[in-house]
């Protein structure tokens, strides 16, 4: 298919994915916030069965929100549900995955230096990782382990680490990261579909019939929605991680992914405790410190001081390397891509010099460029570029 058409589909679906994702996570954040800020209501509200209320100001006016302890006596005429935010985020996510990583498997998913697999095999492995994880999670939720929150959480983290590692052996670094994100997203959307919505439907049915709702449903939904709360920040991190090759492109990218999932899930713990009336801001501070410490640990080693004796790498040889390995995607008229990728053109000496620090970041500190090493750059060539940059990146 024409590259421009694929790019256009990618743009439209990504735009929709971000919009629906903002709606889903936004609503979820908002309700966590509501729960955490409810106050003891006045007696007349308590008499109606209201367990907590709060006042807020937003946009053009005051809002009075009340949460029932159990349920209102009579069903209101209009009840707003929150499910399509989750479903459409998942649907657009799978579509985007298909356009970018499955249709474009040769470019984005397959890394022949790791596994020389066909497009069909790559897609089969990708989809199995998503749906297989969903099935495993659903099974795990039905075991007695579901009664032990912390153990369950640790098992999920170990599983995510194992998947990050396993997929990193087969897929491109980005492909592996994105599949871990997508499997978390699939489990989360599944939680809405399989547990949270049925529980809400049962609750509504009970209130309509005037019978007492079965607490079993509520407990199940609570368990799953707690998982979703912990999973949100790891998921959001993975979705933006593709802009940061220092994470996915690192030699231990899978371990970094596991560490960031742990740290960001831990940060969410602050809000969960707050809901139980426990204030521990130290958790946020500690998570932020851990995050920064991780960035320090994974920082690339400063380039070795240039030995005065090292022969000078000429710009002519650098230019040849760039022409052979980069220009196919980075020029006014690239041959492998429809337009200059990432807005980077490397077809003029001054531009190569200008981009030298980013060349360092993307082709030397990490091997993220050339994309999927499609132009088969060698380690010696990377070393020459590194030396040229450390000698001052001169173009004359
Ligand atoms: C097969 C196509 C392809 C080849 C070959 C390629 N790139 Fe890229 N490059 C991309 C794409 C796609 C992006 C934009 C997405 C992104 O930033 O990851 C990009 C973005 C970049 C960026 C800009 C992002 C930033 O970090 O500021 C730099 C710099 C870069 N490439 C350097 C290189 C260098 C150096 C080479 C050759 C050693 C190279 N690329 C070869 C596809 C390619």
Automatic annotation (TrEMBL):
UniProt xrefs under PROSITE patterns:
CYTC (PS51007)
The protein's UniProt keywords, in alphabetical order, are: Heme, Iron, Membrane, Metal-binding, Transmembrane, Transmembrane helix
Q: What is this protein called?
A: Cytochrome c domain-containing protein
Q: Which InterPro entries match?
A: Cyt_c-like_dom, Cyt_c-like_dom_sf, Urate_ox_N
Annotated source species: Sinobacterium norvegicum
Q: Give the Cytochrome c domain ranges.
A: 306-393
Q: Where are the transmembrane segments?
A: 12-33, 87-105, 117-137, 149-171, 229-246, 252-271, 283-300
- The residues forming a coiled coil are none
């Amino acid at each position: 298919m024409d590259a421009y058409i694929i790019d256009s589909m990618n743009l439209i679906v990504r735009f929709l994915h971000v919009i629906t994702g903002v709606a889903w996570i936004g609503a979820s954040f908002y309700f966590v916030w509501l729960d955490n800020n409810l106050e003891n209501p006045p007696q007349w509200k308590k008499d109606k069965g209201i367990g907590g209320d709060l006042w807020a100001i937003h946009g053009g006016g005051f809002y009075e929100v009340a949460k029932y302890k159990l349920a209102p006596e009579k069903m209101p005429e209009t009840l707003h549900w929150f499910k399509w935010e989750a479903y459409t985020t998942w649907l657009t996510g799978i579509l985007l995955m298909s356009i970018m990583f499955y249709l474009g498997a040769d470019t984005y998913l397959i890394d022949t230096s790791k596994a020389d697999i066909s497009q069909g095999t790559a897609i089969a492995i990708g989809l199995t990782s998503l749906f297989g994880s969903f099935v495993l999670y659903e099974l795990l939720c039905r075991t007695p382990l579901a009664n032990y929150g912390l153990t369950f959480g640790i098992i999920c983290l170990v599983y995510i680490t194992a998947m990050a590692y396993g997929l990193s052996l087969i897929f491109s670094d980005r492909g592996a990261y994105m599949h871990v994100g997508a499997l978390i997203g699939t489990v989360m959307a599944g939680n809405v579909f399989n547990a949270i919505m049925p529980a809400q439907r049962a609750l509504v049915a009970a209130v309509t019939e005037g019978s007492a709702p079965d607490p079993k449903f509520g407990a199940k939904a609570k368990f799953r929605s707690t998982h979703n709360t912990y999973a949100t920040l790891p998921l959001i991190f993975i979705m933006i991680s593709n802009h940061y090759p220092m994470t996915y492109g690192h030699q231990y990218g899978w371990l970094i992914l596991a560490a960031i999932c742990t740290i960001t899930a831990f940060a969410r713990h602050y809000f969960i405790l707050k809901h139980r009336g426990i204030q521990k801001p130290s958790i946020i501070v500690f998570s932020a410190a851990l995050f920064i410490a991780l960035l320090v640990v994974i920082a690339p080693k400063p380039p070795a001081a240039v030995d005065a004796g090292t022969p000078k790498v000429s710009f002519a040889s650098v230019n040849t390397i760039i022409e052979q390995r980069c220009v196919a995607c980075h020029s006014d008229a690239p041959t492998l891509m429809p337009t200059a990728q990432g807005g980077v053109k490397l077809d003029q000496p001054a531009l190569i010099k200008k981009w030298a620090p980013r060349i360092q970041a993307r082709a030397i500190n990490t091997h993220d460029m050339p994309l999927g090493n499609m132009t088969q750059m060698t380690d010696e060539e990377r070393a020459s570029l590194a030396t040229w940059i450390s000698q001052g990146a001169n173009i004359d």
